[in-house]
Amino acid sequence: MTEQELVDGCIREDRICQRELWNRYSRKIMSLCLRYCNSQEEAEDALMEAYVKIYDNLSKFRFQSSLETWMRRVAVNLCINKIRARKHIWTSITEDEYRLGYNDDAFEHLEVNQIMKLVEALPVGYRTVFNMYAIEGYSHKDIAEMLGIDEGTSRSQYAKARKVLQQHIQKSEGGSLAP
Amino acid sequence: MENQRLHSQLRDKLHDLESPFNERVSFEAVMKKRERKKRRMILWIPSMVVVAGLFVLGGLGLLWVQTDQQPERSKQVSVAKSIYKPGKAKKSLLMSQKMSSSGEEKIAQSTRQQEIGIGRSKGLWMIPEADVTADNSLESPVISSVEAVITDERPKETAAVSPVTTLAAPVELVEVPVELVQTKDAVPYLNLDMLCDPQGIEKTQLGISVPLKDHAEIPEGEYEAQWDPALLKSKWYAEFSATTGSSVVINFNEDDRLSILGNIYHANYHGLILKDVGKGFMVGSGLSYGEMVGTGEWRVREFEERMSIDTYDVVVMLPPIQTVRVYDTTYSQVRVETVGMLNFRIDKYAIPMAVRYNFMLGKMAWRAAAQLNPGLTIKTAGDFFTNNEYTPIASQKNLTLDMKLAVGPTISIFNNWFLVLEPNMMHHTFRDMKSGVTKGKTLTGFGVSVLHHF
Fold first, then answer.
1. Chain B residue with minimal CA distance to A112?
2. Which fold would CATH assign to domain A3-85?
3. Are B152 and A61 in contact (CB under 8 A)?
4. Chain B residues within 8 A of A80 when measuring between CB atoms
5. Residues of chain B with C-beta less than 8 angstroms from the C-beta of A48
6. DSSP result, B52-75
7. Fold for domain A95-172?
8. For B27, which of A36, A141, A172, B114 is 20 to 30 Å away at the CA?
9. Overall average pLDDT of the A42-66 stretch
10. Which of B14, B27, B219 sits opposite A115 (nearest CB)?
11. Could you tell me which chain A residue has the CA closest to the CA of B207?
12. What is the ipTM metric for this complex?
């Protein structure tokens, strides 16, 4: 079933197509939600809510990006709104903190699950910005707009996230996360 | 470059990652959740219709109340409430002298009553009705978590690539999506679930984050090419609002000479264009029309001193037998209440200056509103009244300034449409241009605003 057929079927409320959409993408969206949410339960709730929105708004999908990209965007927005509703306080950092070095090769040696664990262990502010910037590919300007924060705050959150990740990786080199 | 590599590694590893979920999460559960949501919407729409209907009925009711109060000559009623005789006063002597000089001493009459000013019947004074016309008739008889709608579709703007006019052959116009023509100005569009920036998304301290050069540039690549075009979010909103309110004017203070009993109503309608300025705040302006109507009655309670003279002819049986006229003068205080009707109407246009603040309380979006409405009256009539005074409004064209404070929940009704239910307090003031007097009244009530996000 092509994406076009899938979308058309879902718009027609065809249960087979709707189920196919669920089966095809739900685990990937769950992975995304896990990266943004604090717990498995919260991620599961976000997943279901995201799918409700996806089914309700599929008619607005114009095939200008892939269906998966669009669905991920819906899920990211939903997770961000949940984070905003939690009234998370975003903090800024100094320039010196921002310029701290970082070993980019560290991730090469880590398994996917280990990276996920590290990302999930980040504080919510760091995690959100890190996910949006490093993984989803938003620019800091976009992140600032979406989260209602300054662009500088977004950058600082990202820098702090990198720093914390680096510390975790250094700690875990001799521990359980070591490859 | 380091960043690009890091991001690339992460995306490669995480993008296609699939995570399991518990049994409670299933396609069927999602469908049930969706059905529940639809049912809520089905219940919500009729309730909104009912609210709107009540609102319209309220407005019509207000109009009816106003038209029922036609301007007419005000009736006045004077009632003698009580009489007491504080005792004979010294004035009796004076009256006695006056009467004795009239040469009527020989009139054989056992008792005669004289009334000064008003008639009397056996100790009870009847005060004639005062035919006073109130001057307050009116000129006019009429007294009268939003659903996140995420689309990769751009707004309907298109840029037309026009053909060169010198071409002989007809050239077909080609519509090109704006994002292909201009993407630098693209603004994030995604966050429609939130009406505005709620509280709590603020940094706690000022920090200067000067980006490194490799951080400053917007990452490029396939991801960004897919994401950026749809990230459009307008900062502009349109608001249409109707507000009503009332205030009961009543004075129970028996010591006051003037008491006013009445009701003042207002209805205000405005259209605004608002701009989201960040941090949950929106500012804007537009046009407002308002009516303020008052109906009631005034009551003046006064004590009048009345003098009555009773005359008696007493026959003195001692020789020589003669008749002596006795004048019995009595002073009394009588409480007199005079009542009249009051009406006023003030119609005005104003240019509001509005500030809105959106915030979250739990999972509910709320909005606080403050508004100043400087404007001009287009029609005034009658007597404006407060609890203890009423004054005629001398001029038709007056300056007005209304201040409104409101707070209430914000509810998503459709895509990009929000409903705000706003209990409010509105202070109306106007400055009478002829007398130079500023009058005002604070009314409390309820308002409904519909907000559209462009």
1. B13
2. Rna Polymerase Sigma Factor; Chain: A (1.10.1740)
3. yes
4. 190-191
5. 25, 29-30, 33
6. HHHHHHHHHHHHHHHHHS---PPP
7. Arc Repressor Mutant, subunit A (1.10.10)
8. A36
9. 87
10. B14
11. A92
12. 0.73
